[in-house]
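Hey all, sorry for the wall of text incoming. These are the two entities for the joint prediction.
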Amino acid sequence: MPIQLIGRDNPSRNTMASFLVFAVTCLSALTSATAAEQGPQRVLAIGGAVTEIVYALGEQDRLVGRDSTSTFPPEANGLPDVGYIRALSPEGVLSVKPDLILARENNGPPEAVEVLKSTGVRWVDVPDEFTLSGIDENITIIAAELGVVDKGEALKKKVAADIARSRARQAAQGEAPRVMFVLALTDDKIRTSGRNTAADNIIALAGGENVITAFDGYKEISNEAVIDAAPDIILMMNGRGESADHEAVNALIEAHPALSTTPAVRNGRIIRMDGLLMLGFGPRTGEAIAQLSDALAGHEH
Amino acid sequence: MSTSLDATMNRLREPEGDRTALARRMMVCLLLILLVTAVLSLGSGATDTSASSVAWALVSGQDHLISAVERVIIMDIRMPRILLGMMVGACLAVSGAVMQGLFRNPLADPGIVGVSAGASLGAVSFIVLGTGVLAPVAALFGIYHVPFAAFLGGLMFTFALYRISTRSGSTSVATMLLAGIALGALANAFTGMLIFRADDEQLRDLTFWGLGSIAGATWPKVFAVAPIIVPILILAPFMARGLNAMTLGEATAHHLGVNVQIFKRLAIVLVAAATGAAVAVSGGIGFVGIVVPHLLRLMIGPDHRFLLPACGLLGAIMLLLADAIARQIVAPAELPIGIVTAAIGAPFFLWILLRRRGLMDI
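and here's what came out:
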């Protein structure tokens, strides 16, 4: 059950709030048209994809804050930043005076979240799923919370159509290119993606094949395993800060004892994409698939 | 014992004579500053709260005067945080002073008894394995399993270190230092293995834990550590005479009538328990245990009878101030407090080192 209303800690204080929320929920179910005016007016979005969905629904005027992972669309950066999704500060969150908190699961720390849930402000956990059905589910939940179910249905159709179009375009391609996702390269140690990650899923959706299958999640792998995997393509996120200098990072990669042996580096096939677009599994996933599959097929953007 | 000891201490004092009056004035000042800092902390944060709502929150349980959310912010978020901050700061500073006295080394910190290495191993184990192998244990302690594991880890490590460095009833301080380094390396090896197993989110959690924070302060945490930290803070000043004697060397302390062995054991146990509790609820907050005692030694001299209570007060003030900075500098987000204490502490530490060099360049 992703949605919960916590009011156990202090029944007397929270009864009224719970009743109000309940009343509002009933109202929004009854009258979807007026719901937008009646529903929550001060929404805090925590998680990049959550913020993107609120914008895609056209409900950004109700946003009063975001977390540091919410960097798209660019205007979201103008909202107050309550910090990193897993290092939330209870008072910082309350200071933007939200009446609804939409938080991607995987938020934390648990004791801070516990305190926040005890305040009676509505807190909704949005599942942290890096799959196509996960995107649908997230849009459904967020649209319902904002009382804009019709907009949600329209957005789901649009997102599904985008994804279908992107995937249809790559149907004609032959062999799946063998891809290795490099999350980070710190002092010559390579952190890569195994199975069951956002990177693994997006590579598959874009018609590629993830060559690292020995483990789940993101881990450091040995140089020998890299040589053994021999990827045709190395996929990375656009760098921030020091690694924003892609030329410099490429020079490191070309000088790396293991990476330099791979077909990917020998043929200069290092692809970069915006991290949130590629791994966020939000409303722009269709665009992410199109961009990535084009890049995998060698089309320039 | 006490007269001969006092006479010795008097000979030790610097020529400008009696610092007692100065120390007493200092203590009163610190107490006032602490009260003011605490009150100001209660009234400031990411959310604007008026002085009147703070007052109402403190004196009245009725909700028509202030909003429910405001009450939560003042009473359930700031209040436990301030109490926790004061306890952690006081305990780190006092433990630091006790360890520096015991080891006769001005650079010893509370972590020297292995408690920090053990605590971080305990915390890391649960952050990484709390959803896997250790899930049943984690479920037992609910959302507080990480602090609990840190506390246990710290105590276990200290116990091991104590056993290693104690032969036929006497504890060698030098062995303890060296064994502490070895055990720390061992803990790091295990921590390293766990880090290797960790996924992305767990890695971030580890990083944040290591930076230290009292953002997760809640009443249950306050009630969990208060029974450990408060009695130790009250007991600490009673160790002053023993520590004063120990600064002259163990043999001299023994001749002055201090039961050196029992005293060492007591000091180590108290520091381990207090620091374990502090680290458990706040993660890695560095430098308070070194900086505060140093600063006070420069100001009121090395007499532990004044040094220990003053350390408690100044440690609490330092942590409250650091927390106030951490809470407001990037509001509505917040910095981990360990960053603030280290950013202030490290330069200060360097300054002390340079100053010592200056004194020693004969």
